[in-house]
Design a protein that fits this description.
By secondary structure, the chain is α+β, with helices and mostly antiparallel strands. The chain contains 24 helices and 22 strands. The radius of gyration is 30 Å and the shape is globular.
Length: 586
């Protein structure tokens, strides 16, 4: 066997089989890598957890869980064994790849970006690590570049000049780099690199990014010790320097649809002065936090959930539940203060909506007489439905229901039920005009609660049971809680839990949890329909469509739960957190 290959296999073995190795703290407390980037940087990213992750390699518990799952089989089918790929890459570069990255970045890695509208962005990089490893890697990389260009390796390996004790290489028009004593700096132009070199050793330089007060606040408040990657964006500056896409994102906060569908926290994130992102990789979880600092005061203060309030309790979770959550939608403020909150162009739509909603509430002004009596917190529950054996849809979907509390249940309860009955009547008129089946309105008493529901007639023998049989809309008033759902069976179940006091307190702030196992079950149960749709609509072969659908099911099955939560950690800061639980407890 080739001696070089044997050496690479032995060196790369720890990437796959060794136990995790802790990263040793640097007693010298080197200069912060952010202090080596210029102050005008508008997009910043650092990777404090990268060395530890690289030292663990594929032995990281989360990566091991993924590779031991059906998703790992899909990865191996597409690209081959990750372990062997790492070995092959190690042979090619002449050193174990992941341990080398750990050594190169053990003192920090930072990347900065300054967009230039209509031009190439300015990019700069600062990294600190083992001096000997950096020297060896640079010599090997420059030697490879020289070989590809047909030049003697010595022509590139030798530095072209020295600036303030750092060796500098000019590699074309878009890359200039420098190295000394384990510190590596790179930029897309020579002037920027020389400014970065000048920042070396000056820990209090006002011309560095580390001196930016917004950056300092974001980093101290919203970067944790568990961060794998942490990033900061100067959103206010990017609005003028970046392409038009960011301006559109920041304008979302002025769109009523975004406020009502996404919620004010998500809609207002892009309008903050700056933003911070953190990615964490745990033993059984992948987490992403997105924070908007100094969000617009007017909209945020009026429509975002107050910091001291919590959502009401929901019916207790049951096995096999598909999803649940609580969202905050202050419809009363949206309609009452629409003129101050939103631009003139959307006001006619509000007038039309107010007029249409009045039809369901006996001509009342919903902004004054209905919405103020409803709690802004809205609960959501989705579960599989026990369909009537005579009307099981060809594509069975889980049922979904919302739960809304009212401050005046005695008067609002009947009005809400009447509004649903009016809605069913309108839907029936439209269905009749299109010669489609209609819903019959029925009442049922369940555990002391009246269930109002609409139902399609049972299909006759040999008649197809199409998608519409997933819909058996129902509602019920239980105490001060109004339940509205897509299917009678789910509303009955939730109403019973509410009546019996079988409740669970959801997390503080807005939240949504989705079961990956249930999504995987739905995909598997409807595989043939999904494959047929992909073949007919997308023109894919049956084999390719089936492979993609099964792959999607495998990914969903790997995820125990997906959680999205929003919060208001400070008066004008907004945060959205996404968490994937893999192989752990829910």
């Amino acid at each position: 066997m080739n001696p070089m290959l044997v050496h690479a296999l032995l060196c790369a073995a720890p990437l796959v089989h060794s136990a995790p190795i802790a990263v040793a703290a640097d007693p010298a407390a080197p200069q912060d890598v952010a202090a080596l980037l210029p102050a005008e940087v508008e997009v910043y990213a650092e990777a404090p957890g990268l060395p530890a992750l690289c030292r663990q390699g594929l032995r990281h518990p989360l990566l091991a869980s993924v590779l031991d799952s059906p998703v790992g089989d899909l990865i191996r089918d597409e690209v081959g064994s990750p372990g062997l790929l790492l070995v092959g890459l190690s042979v090619k570069v002449g050193r174990p790849v992941l341990p080398a990255i750990a050594k190169l970045t053990e003192g920090g890695l930072a990347v900065g970006l300054v967009p230039r509208k209509g031009g190439k962005p300015l990019v700069c990089v600062a990294a600190r690590g083992d001096a000997a490893e950096w020297k060896s890697v640079l010599e090997a990389a420059l030697g490879m570049v020289a070989e590809s260009e047909g030049l003697p390796p010595a022509d590139l390996i030798a530095p072209q000049r020295t600036v303030d004790g750092m060796h500098v290489w000019d590699l074309g028009d878009t890359l200039v780099m420098a190295h000394a004593d384990g510190l590596f700096l790179a930029a897309s132009d020579a002037a920027t690199l020389e400014r970065m070199i000048a920042l070396r050793g000056d820990r209090a330089a006002e011309t560095s990014l580390a001196a930016n007060l917004d950056f300092q606040r974001a980093r101290s408040a919203y970067r944790t010790d568990a961060a794998l990657v942490w990033s900061w964006l100067d959103l206010a500056a990017l609005e003028t320097s970046a392409d038009d896409g960011l301006g559109e994102l920041r304008a979302i906060q002025t769109q009523p649809a975004a406020q009502l569908l996404l919620g004010s926290t998500l809609a207002n994130l892009g309008g903050a002065q700056s933003g911070a992102l953190e990615l964490r990789l745990g033993a059984t979880s992948l987490e992403l936090d997105v924070v908007g600092l100094d969000a617009p005061e007017g909209v945020a203060a009026k429509l975002v959930a107050p910091r001291k309030t919590s959502p009401p309790a929901l019916p207790a979770q049951v096995d096999g539940e598909t999803a649940r959550g609580s969202v905050y939608r202050d419809f009363a403020t949206v309609f009452r203060e629409r003129v101050d909150l939103f631009p003139p162009g959307v006001q006619p739509a509000f007038a039309e909506a107010t007029s249409n909603l009045a039809l369901f509430f006996g001509g009342k002004d919903v902004a004054d007489d209905v919405l103020p009596k409803l709690d802004p917190w809205i609960g959501f529950v989705s579960r599989p439905v026990a369909f009537d054996e005579r009307a099981i849809p060809e594509v069975p979907l889980p049922g979904a229901a919302i739960l809304v509390r009212t401050t005046e249940p005695e008067t609002m309860g009947p009005e809400l039920v009447a509004a649903v009955q009016s809605l069913l009547s309108i839907l029936n008129i439209e269905a009749a005009q299109q010669q489609q089946p209609i819903l019959t309105v029925n009442l049922e008493l369940h555990e002391g609660t009246t269930i109002t529901y609409g139902r399609y007639r049972a299909p006759v023998q040999d008649e197809g049971v199409d998608l519409r049989y997933n819909l058996e809309p129902a509602c019920a008033m239980v105490g001060d809680t109004f339940v509205l759902g897509t299917h009678r069976a789910l509303v009955k179940e939730l109403a019973g839990q509410l009546a019996r006091g079988e409740l669970t307190q959801p997390p503080r702030g807005e939240s949504l949890e989705l079961s990956g196992a249930e999504v995987a079950r739905i995909i598997a149960a409807n595989e043939e329909t999904l494959v047929l749709g992909a073949v007919l609509e997308d023109g894919k072969s049956e084999a390719q469509a089936r492979k993609e659908i099964q792959g999607l099911g495998a990914v969903a099955g790997l995820i125990d739960a997906l959680r999205l939560e929003t919060a208001r950690p400070a008066a004008r800061d907004l945060r959205a957190s996404l968490k994937l639980l893999i192989g752990g407890e829910r």
